[in-house]
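Changelog note: in this version the structure field was regenerated for every chain. One regenerated record is shown below for reference.
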Amino acid sequence: MLIDTHCHLDFPEFAPDRDAVIQRASESGVTRLITIGTNLETSRAAVALAETHPNIYATVGIHPCEVAETPDDACDTLEELAKHPKVVALGECGLDYHHLPSRQKSAFTNAAQSTGGVAPGTEESLIADADLKNRQAIFFQEQLDLAVRLNLNVVIHQRDSWQDTLATLKPYASRLRGVFHCFSGTQDQVRELLQLGHAVSFTGIVTFKNARDLHECVRQVPAGSFFVETDCPYLSPEPHRGQRCEPAHTRLVAEKIASLRGLPLAEIARETTAAAEKFFRFPAIA
């Protein structure tokens, strides 16, 4: 038995054949799925899917790349959604600095900055960066506070924001745990997270031949501290790279992890399922 701990089943890529996708997952031994909220609309959709499928659970949250279009009082709505018995975590939430306004720069701007100058027009984009970072930080902290109030753990999205993400999480270390989903960092980063009580989850990236640093992380990370996921419809593992990903591919992720760790697939399935059950605390559904 495997658990896809992070998928986006409500996304339009699955509209034509969603039921078949869910069935294929079950046939591949992926017996439980967690569909992830990224804004109010997708959070509602995640809860609706969980209500109508006994093997699907949900999270509700505001993704950092969604904060610009999200109303200021969105966490009030999240709080009501999160009270549903099949909601098993808050998120995905966090910080993402990959697409800041200042990164959409011309070659001239990049050249000016590389020599220590400030290119014309850069000031506005830097102000926009600060505004967006601040809004991301507000929503991240509000969701962490909500998770503490509701006794839920959190699904963390982190991209190009490592130090700020950890600094935000540290005051919550004794009150909640986070899983850094789609982890592709270093062994030092894994150790830092584990010292704070957090976990990581791995996607189809582990099957990529050039992911050598990640392969070493997978070999070394302690059992019980990591899960498996697809992040579908994104990040299809080999041999499906470039195609739509789906929850059935969780098995390919687990098979690669088993190979890297020199263990049977059944052992990885047992370890990751037990770790996910402890983290997400799935309710008993009649």
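Spot check on this record: Strands lie at 2-7, 30-35, 56-60, 87-96, 154-159, 178-180, 199-202, 226-228. The domain at 2-105+119-280 is CATH 3.20.20.140 (TIM Barrel).
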